[in-house]
Amino acid sequence: VILYETRRLPVALVSYVIGSTLPGPDTPPIGLGLPPPRDWSTRLLSTLGHKLIDWIMADLRRQVSKLRRAHGLTPLDGPIMGLAARLPLYLVSSCPELDFERQDLPPNTFYVGPLRWYPPMPPPDWLDEVPTDRLWIHATEGTVHVQEPRVLRASALGLADAPYEVIMTSGPNRAPASLDLGPLGTNVHLVDWVNHGELLPRTDLLICTGNSGTMLAALYHGVPIIAVPTEWDHADNARRVARAGACLILTPRRCTPHRLRQAVEHVLSTPSYRENAARLAACLRRQGGAERAAELLIGMLRMEQED
Fold first, then answer.
1. pTM as predicted
2. Are 100 and 307 in contact (CB under 8 A)?
3. What's the CA dihedral at 80, 84, 85, 90 to 10 degrees?
4. Which of 277, 196, 211 is nearest to 18 (CA)?
5. Which of 32, 60, 284, 303 could serve as a FRET partner for 127 with CA atoms 20 to 30 Å apart?
């Protein structure tokens, strides 16, 4: 907002959602889960969405403009995220195919793919005891989820005694027993957390709420997704992956045990979901990951020192 323009201190911004948050004509407003503006109807929808977001963010924009004026800078002339185009570096932890193949991004923008890191620890002993002669499904609501465990409850009830192994994680902020999911099927395993680096390479399908970290981790390993968006950025994340053909979206209202079971059977029996997830995995891996991000950060520092 002010640091780079007032002190010329190098500032890099990282988009943690699936896609860039920079405004532009090739993308809808962030936060509404809208399709990209490609024809008259989606352009109209995007325009209305922008007006709604402008109204919602009006007070915050006034506060940011006040702060900028206090430091001798011009007030905002558009969305707050538009300021990111003025920074030396903007990193997107995704790939162009998950960002609507945008052509309107400024030259400071680089796709680097998922910035992956997992704690160096051995896999839990029980994970090696899960039968491998059946498909594995991972159901999670992310590391921090404060709403009702709608997705986990539907997974536990809908997939109990199904011909799959279901590994569910409550997240480290909730004890598994506190979720009150009732008696679990013999094929359902409920724990607080499992290292995705150990679990996802063995997984055939992910069920989640649409959080970007989990979805990107799954796609990196070519795992198709069922998403039940529950928070503001989740609908956007799910929309992008669904448009790329690797995700089926269920609204929270429709996430019943029966419908979730049907969705699981549909995705697992439709090869295109797995094929598209594999294609996205290759796309994400080509971006270079944390190593590429580090190279760009070092390059930014060198350029700023030369200037």
1. 0.92
2. no
3. -150
4. 211
5. 284
DSSP letters of 195-223? -HHHHGGG-SEEEE---HHHHHHHHHTT-
Integer distance in angstroms from the first to the last C-alpha of the chain?
21
* 36 neighbors 47 (Cβ within 8 angstroms): no
Q: What is the residue type of 218?
A: A
**pLDDT of 147 strictly over 80:** no
Closest CA to 193 of 223, 170, 166: 170
Dump strand ranges (E) for the chain: 12-15, 89-92, 109-111, 135-140, 164-169, 188-191, 205-208, 225-227, 247-249
Q: Is 103 helix (H, G, I), strand (E, B) or coil?
A: coil
- Per-residue pLDDT at 193: 87
Express as a percent the part of the chain with pLDDT over 90. 78
Model confidence pLDDT, tens digit, residues 33-46: 999 999 999 999 99
Q: What whole-number distance in Å separates Cα of residue 192 and Cα of residue 201?
A: 19
Per the structure block, which two tokens stand in for 243?
Answer: 């448009």
CA distance 221 to 12: 27
Alpha-carbon distance of 15 to 93, in angstroms, equals: 6
Q: How is 221-277 classified by DSSP, letter by letter? A: TT--EEE---STTHHHHHHHHHHTTSEEE--GGG--HHHHHHHHHHHHH-HHHHHHH
Residue 24 backbone phi and psi in degrees, to 5: 175, 170
Residue 205 near residue 138 (C-beta atoms within 8 A):
yes
For residues 12 and 91, the answer to whether their CB atoms sit within 8 Å is yes
For position 146, what pLDDT does the model report? 66
Residue in this structure with the two tokens 């400024």, named with its chain if needed: 106
Sign of the C-alpha dihedral, residues 295, 300, 305, 306?
positive
What's the maximum distance between 2 C-alpha atoms anywhere in the chain? 66
